[in-house]
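Lab notebook, bench 4. Still working through the backlog of constructs that have no structural model yet. Next entry is a single chain of 165 residues. Request: give me the structure tokens for it.
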Amino acid sequence: MRHNKKFNHLSRKKAHRDALLANMTISLIMHKRIFTTLAKAKALRMYAEPLINRAKEDSTPNRRLVFAHLQNKEAVTELFREIAQKIANRPGGYTRILKTGNRLGDNAQTCFIELVDYNENMLKDNGAKKSTRTRRSRRGGKNAAPAAEAPAATETPAAEAPAAE
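Model written out:
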């Protein structure tokens, strides 16, 4: 009976699936954003977020538990030093999945999965919105005259160089 066993097996045996998710978690911690399929990203979110949550409290048992899953000292160090400071007061939801369309070869749905606090573009958009609008005319106005003079100045030395030879 399959009661209470409803998660994506990703067409892999348990050992292969655990190794895949551990390697993807290490890449996510080190690079802050990875490109993968949507099914793997959703499975990775379920695997990585409890480990990231452990990093909030830097204690020896938590480090040992995370290292038992990841088996990578550099990733554990990065997680407990850099990432733990940024997520210290976030109650959950440490990752974001952004869909990017379908892959050409097999039409699989692809996406980015990234750590939420490390996307500078999203953080800037939320912080400041432009309220003033500028208009541009087709004529160009004052900027049109210097733009016309600049190409003429560059053509003159080029024309003199072949004449000298």
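Notes after review: The beta strands are 33-37, 95-102, 109-115. The mean pLDDT is 86. Flag for follow-up if needed.
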